[in-house]
Design a protein that fits this description.
Number of helices: 4
Strand content: 5-15%
Distance between the termini: 20 Å
Radius of gyration: 15 Å
Largest sheet: 4 strands, parallel
């Protein structure tokens, strides 16, 4: 995956802040595409606008591709240093807007690799009434609300 994915990214070059682009997955990944979202300005931190736009554009690219399942990380919360709870609120808001406007997506996975990140997303989604936010061991939801990878569960 590494070198071939890097070559695809090099062909595209940098993308505008808040935009998203697509590369073939290549290698041994069991997916067809990778959607790359630009949420962190060079030399600084992620903002609510950059996370909102990156999320919306990633969802838009998924719809353009006719994707049925999408995995999203907590955009901008690592190196971008954006607060996890605000990220969860923004990503939930953009996901709901996308679904309400019509989508090809049937499942959205929020891939959350740390227990604290999962806890923040779980709290935000539960407070918002999202009933089908659950860990990866649960059956897929019948509506889009999200699923999360819990780091303490076996893969």
């Amino acid at each position: 995956v590494g070198p071939s994915l890097q070559q695809e990214c090099t062909k595209i070059g940098s993308i505008p802040l808040g935009e998203a682009c697509v590369t073939p997955a290549g290698g041994s990944l069991r997916v067809k595409h990778i959607i790359h979202a630009g949420a962190i300005p060079l030399g600084t931190w992620a903002t609510k606008e950059s996370i909102r736009n990156a999320t919306a554009n990633a969802l838009k690219r998924a719809k353009e591709l006719g994707v049925k399942t999408l995995a999203l990380p907590a955009i901008g919360t690592g190196v971008g240093s954006f607060p996890i709870d605000r990220c969860a609120e923004i990503m939930l808001d953009e996901t709901r807007k996308h679904v309400e406007a019509g989508t090809t997506l049937e499942t959205i996975w929020f891939v959350l690799l740390e227990e604290t990140t999962y806890a923040f997303f779980d709290e935000v989604f539960t407070a918002a009434g999202v009933e089908d936010f659950r860990d990866e061991t649960a059956p897929a939801p019948s509506s889009i609300g999200g699923q999360a990878h819990r780091p303490d569960e076996p893969e």
